[in-house]
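Build the 3D complex.
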Amino acid sequence: MYIGLDVGGTHTDAVLLDRGGVVSTCKTDTEHSNLLGSIDRALREVTRGIDLGSIVSVNLSTTLSTNAIVEGNVEPVGLLVSSGPGIDPENFRAGRHFYLLEGSIDHRGSVVRDIDEKALAAAAEGCRKKGVKVFAAVTKFSTRNPDQELSMAGAVSGFSDFTTLGHRLSGQLSFPRRVASAYFNSAVWRTFSDFAGAVQKSVAAMGIGAPLNILKADGGTMPLSRAADYPVESILSGPAASIMGIVSLCHVTEDSIILDIGGTTTDIAIFASGAPLIEREGITMGGFPTLVRSLKTRSIGIGGDSVVAVKKGKVSVGPERRGPSMADGGKQPTLIDALNVRGIISYGNGARSVQGMTALASKHDMTPEELSSTAIECALNAIKNTVEEMIYEINEKPVYTIHELLEGKRIVPEKLYVMGGPAAAFVELLSDRFKIEVTVPKNFEVANAIGAGLARNTMEAELFADTSRGVLSVPNIQVSERIDARYTVERAEADAVRYLAAYMKTIGAAVDEGGIDVVESSAFNMVQGWHTAGRDIRVKCQIRPGVIMDLY
Amino acid sequence: MIQAKNKMGLIFFPAYDWAIEDTHPEREERLLYTQDQLREEGVFDIEGVLEFKPDVATELDVMRTHFCFPDVASVTTESHMISAGGAIRAARLVLDGEVKKSFALVRPPGHHAMKAVHGNRGFCNINNEAIMIEYMRDNYGIKRVAIVDTDCHHGDGTQDIYWNDPNVLFISIHQDGRTLYPGSGHTTEAGGPNARGRTINIPLPPGTSDDGFLYAIDHMVLPILKDFGPEIVVNSAGQDNHYSDPITNMNFTAQGYAILNDRLSPDIAVLEGGYSIQGALPYVNLGIVLAMAGVDYSGVREPNFDEIADEIRQERNITAYIERLTEVVLGNYFKPAEGRELLYPGDYVTRKKNIYYDTDGIQESQVESLMRCNDCGGLLVLESVSSVNPLCLGIEIPVGACPNCRDEGLKYFERARKQKKYAVIHFINRVNKEYVRV
Ligand SMILES: [Zn+2]
Ligand SMILES: [Zn+2]
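Done.
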């Protein structure tokens, strides 16, 4: 049996699942001052009366790291950075202990200038004196040559509790994203690892021996052992939990739209041939683009509790929420009240909905029915426009080969899945609007916890080989090997898969080579003068986000 | 996050699956390291720098601009249509107001492709900038355009296409033709009889560095542009003036390219040549993108710049030579040699050209006849024969042709059709937007 736990901003949801479907569920309020207590309560509730030995895994989605960053509740980080020529690295300053060091590596991974050892030693000493305990070391092109990051880490090893090395976060290029990701990772490290340790203890104390996994924004999980070193990968996993829930609840095979309509927001995701799409670069956290892989989702300020307002004769819905709907005892009419007035739902105290809408409508020379209809229209338009923007963006995504440009697949959604509190009310409205089949999945109230519970371990790795220099590396999983001049792209593909599988084994993840896909692979002849000097080989492989099993 | 002062569109299309030949400079790998550098620098995360897919140019887009013999499909591949389409996309972005400036980082290049096309010369088949400009003129009603070609090689193809066009100013800054392919681009080449002073050549001596290039921009290009008053300025952004380029002899730097773009402030840039793909392109392209977007580019330097700075300093005699060149260049524009008075309107001026297509090994002979006209660019008639095509004919009634030139063109076409002398006739009628091949 599998346990999924989603510790959200308002609720903590837990589910217990087995091959037959949902065995039990639990929804409890999240106690922010005592997250562990909330988790404990939910776990005890869903496991009541079952054989704890039959639990295979416990997967947890938590907003802990996200909240720590958003609320600025983070530890000071000694951020050691070297960039060489290019865009002014001052632009990427983060935190109060930012040290810019001389040193430079070019795009081939050749050291152009050594790290200024004196300045590095001074920076380290400065941090030590100020009591800085966690660090992040980042250089430009460290994914091509990690040596300078390693020597930066070496300079603080005597007194650092934890140091994030930029190249270990991802093989992807982007110095600014590397800086931000490494900074966040170190900034939340202590909070996260303390929490993770406590959860593990409490789960063990309960008698559950199953491994604990943490949900990531890409809709996959990572074993706790990895999460302890890469807590940044746990940020913004909330929307991913619900999307993975849909994956296990519905047999999505077509291009589809997924809507999760909540109280304040609607999360939107797009599936291509049944698989959720992944963000090209990485998620943006608090305005900082990062290297953290995530599903492609967008959130707009339209939900059941979004305020209905009229300004200069124009009706609007959201993005603010000012308490619950009037039907629920609130003070201002919301989208829920509009749906009540139109008789699309009959929720809570319907009379209060009518009362609120009538009061607002009469101020603007409208009938409550007109106002409600316009408000519902407005919400639907906002959702439709955003969906269309997303699809346009996906279809217009830049490609770099003639083949992809001329033969590339275009997304044309054939189905829409909608979940969330007011989901049922929207079925007809949405099918009218989108002119495609609309489905409300079974058990959608706990889709988030189901998604968390059934999400697989995921990971990606980028192999980079240069036969003229005779080197191969997979930076984020610490592979660095010599290769001969005859090394081929076919061997590189096999090696990338093999290295990733081996790494997954070391972190205790349940993955075999068959579950790893090569997603990008290229080989370029490098020419010097008019002769081929070697080959630049690049292979990217990943374990796709997916679920352990379909529920129904 | 960094904010671009100018919202900017980047059409990045490296065509990773296309090359002229395995070890040819124009091969798959050419923009690979540029992409690495731009991604590592986080250029695509700059707020206001947006990436777009190229359009695919249509046969009509090519026929509007070129006489392709025997036809468009025979002298182009998909890669050429996408490269030209990239330039078109760049123009659309600017003219539709989606962005303020755009840069088409596309390959293959196009500036050696002339009016008549029989194959590939100087790595070019069709002229990306010209196809883009003619697209703008037909679809957006743009009238006056200036092209500043900063490729190290003379933009002889673009010069040929606009030789007789009084509304398109073509300025080429390049390494002196006496020392480099294609050998042309002397100050004596200053435009056809109906367009004197609309072709401006600035041949610079080998060894010219940042100082010389920027001097030419400040003292020659900018004053001429100011007077001409174009609606759109296009930069043919070749990058082979770089000190590390393997096939040229100039000493221009990435920082120099960035400053040049800052001062020139083109609306649209289109990549041309540049074959130092590891040592120059990543940094030059970074410099150009930042300068166009209005983002601080002062930190852009080649990694080995410090070691080479002394070596590439401009010699004094070169500085003096360029200073002396100014008067000739400005004179070509502001006091062009008499052209219109040479002949009476209605007479034909002919040019005979022998053109060698180095990449494809084709030899072409042309007779270009232009009708003198005081009211428009003048009817153009071009007879061409090559080692791959028998005698062919191109007739062009130019943009904004006067009724006389239009009537004459229509008559010429009818006559030629009856003669059965030509294997192929291309007829371009810009007034009626009619593009025919018979
Ligand atoms: Zn060139
Ligand atoms: Zn005329």
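Residues B 151-153, 238, 240, 272-273 surround zinc ion (ligand 1) (CB under 6 Å).
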